[in-house]
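ASSEMBLY PREDICTION REQUEST
Request ID: AP-0331
Submitted by: J.K., bench scientist
Number of chains: two
Total residues: 895
Priority: normal
Notes: Please return the full assembly, not individual chains.
Input sequences:
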Amino acid sequence: MSRRLHIEIFRYNPLDPDSVPHMQSFYVNEYDSMTLFIALNIIREEQDPSVQFDFCCRAGICGSCGMVINGRPGLACHTQTRDLPEHIVLHPLPVFKLIGDLSVDTGTWFRAVGKKIEAWVHSDDTAFDVRAEEARMENALAEQIFELDRCVECGCCIAACGTARMREDFLGAATINRVARFYIDPRDERSDDDYYDVIGNDQGVFGCMGLLGCEDVCPKKIPLQDQLGIMRRMLALNSVKGILPKGILDKMKHKGCCHEKH
Amino acid sequence: MQTIYTDLLCIGAGLAGERVAVEAAMAGFRVTCLSIVPPRRSHSSAAQGGMQAALGNAVMGQGDSPDVHFADTVKGSDWGCDQEVARIFADTAPIVMREMAHWGVPWNRVVAGTHTYYKGGKPFEAEEAAEKHGLIHARAFGGTAKWRTCYTADGTGRAVLNTLDTKCLQYGVEIHDRTQAEALIHDGERCMGAIVRCLKTGELKAYIAKATLIATGGYGRIYRATTNAVICDGGGQIIALDTGLVPMGNMEAVQFHPTGTVPTDILVTEGCRGDGGTLLDVNEYRFMPDYEPEKAELASRDVVSRRMIEHIRKGFGVQSPYGEHLWLDIRHLGVKHITTKLREVYDICTNFLGVDPIHQLIPVRPTHHYSMGGVRVDKNGHAYGLKGLFSAGESACWDMHGFNRLGGNSLAETVVAGTYIGKQVAQFLQGYDLDIKSAAIRDAHDKIAERIKNIATSAKGRENCYQLRNEMQDAMMEHVGIFRNEKDLKEGVDKLQALYERSMNIGLQASSKGFTPEMSMALRIPGMLKLALCTAYGALMRTESRGAHTREDYPERNDRDWLNRTLAYWKDGETLPVLKYEEASPYYELPPGDRGYGGGKIITAELPPEKLTVPSKGKDEPAAKPAKSAKKK
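STATUS: Completed
Returned structure:
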């Protein structure tokens, strides 16, 4: 019953001038409820302690362990080996800078785009009054914001993105999702124009080719394509605001988004 | 060696580290955060349930106040906590939650009208007030008199961490991720920063700072079955202990969470029980009310965990290939509740256990979860023994938790202590000039460089670091678990001492240029063994049962002899810590008494009257006064 897994791992140490990128095979006995987290740690601890990969929470919550698993980006910790064939091929996520083997630098990448889009709630922090009640918010809206705030920045959507593979400066679905999160947050005082400056270009929403790979691979099942559509619509309408009458614009503003109920 | 200068060096960039960082950055100081992982991957992100704060907005929180929160916290701690600190915490928490709301946390909010809630598996109806509509809501957690835990679904840690990380970005906090501090730089009196290993290149760098903060979370990885992330290896506590000057407080106070899942040890939140989930045995019988008629599943974690093990020992456990367990039942909460407010739980169950919690029972057992102990600091977060060294969050023993912390209190502590201690750090930095001693930097660097060289060349031997880790984890599971006794603990200490000696001879099994993950583990193991020894030896010497520390051979809580805190120091060259003790609290606003759950006998203490009065209450903490609306009910 128990299989002997053939796990092929991409190996390359950029700090070692003698290292050349290559695939290396390892063999591990499968057992019940085995995940790639378990399998890779067995390899490191019992076969080759130099193999590099990243795990942290090992519960699908932190986003550390994004890698390409049999050709598809995903989180290794919540990938059960029983869902994979006997032969498992692992590559590091593309787009991000390789640290070594399966380990890539997502941290630097996400901070850089975060700075670009000024990824924080733009409001007056000095206005916080320790004695005042908190500003009220509808629970439904809070839930909607959290829905987008669930992104773990694992980088799978970036790795699966055709545009991101071709253009280094494309912000990617996770970043556009972050903008969408601030856009729906009434605490963020930025205007439509401000958002246009940030993502109303080929690096942002208009660079997307609509291949939908991002949403397919998102381990948190965040509706990334919806966000892209919503942001595109908002920016497109914003760019014709001097041309179309305001009445029509207001009418169109909240229609056509597939997640909204009409 | 590259040298980096900063005002505040935060070692760790989870909730506590980032909250302190933001406070100092907002005050205009240069702040650099070190983190093993990108900050948003910190273990804070895995915290599901919520943060306790006495806002009293929810209908089931009516009549709540910081006073009630304070009393719950002290009882939860089994009177082991520092009551001055617990008071600062309870009073400040509501303000901090509001501030987090101001900064962008999408807290779940009160929805006016009639709602069906669950208690102990039974539905009941309650009416949320119209005038509270839109304010921060709260759910129930164990050991609390009121519903007090603020939450964003079951991703509270994620939501708050995201918000704090955006604030770090906004205020220009430098983040150096994939770095690990290996030694503190100090001259015996003052801390001046740390020697840091880059986890991309393996290089050593010096970070020179006026103030240094340890906020590295817990050290759960000294146990094999823990809910903690793989990075929770006690790195921060180790470098503090290594100085020989800074003590660890109450290391024997270790929390086991009732609902770690089987077999992966991944946690499902206490929110499951808070929202009305129940614990069932092999006969699918709800057993907790038999043991704890009042609180049932919602007694404090130490009590529920003990009762579960008791029940399993009576033969009511469910047999499985991974050992015995019990069941958590949330089926009655319904598909909507489970897929929205307990969504992470749903994902964990389906992805890792192959269990659909809407229709099936979840296999659970008590699993190592939290370290009440850590770097002993005063109420301002300043470490004992070294000027300029601070600590906050789980890595610290600030000591609001004593011998057991309540669910929702540690996540709240990260940001409440972060805010409070952040202000103290900013004050410390104001006008502080650091006299940098290059000899201290060189000493710290050379020590680490030599260790690395010895390990890389197997100069002292070829002990395998992974094998030592496994043996340490097994020893902790076997000898320093939920129920403890002298014989087991002695054996555990002996085993750990032998392992510690072997850990001096670790050598790499495979060498490679630049960074190698094996070196990270090899560097950490001796320090983890020190922490394990502090835990086991502290537990052996404490001959009483208090909170999570349960001695079968000393079942009473002994206030007469043990109303105190263990301080563990490590002298260079020794294989055991030196234990000292200090009073648990400067005074007892809430005099030692019965918790109201958990049972057990108490040997009472005769406390002088001046210990039972609060000196000049509230006068020196004007900023910590709660907002009006939290108090008026």
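REVIEWER COMMENTS: Residues 4-104 of chain A form a domain with the Ubiquitin-like (UB roll) fold (CATH 3.10.20.30).
SIGN-OFF: pending second reviewer
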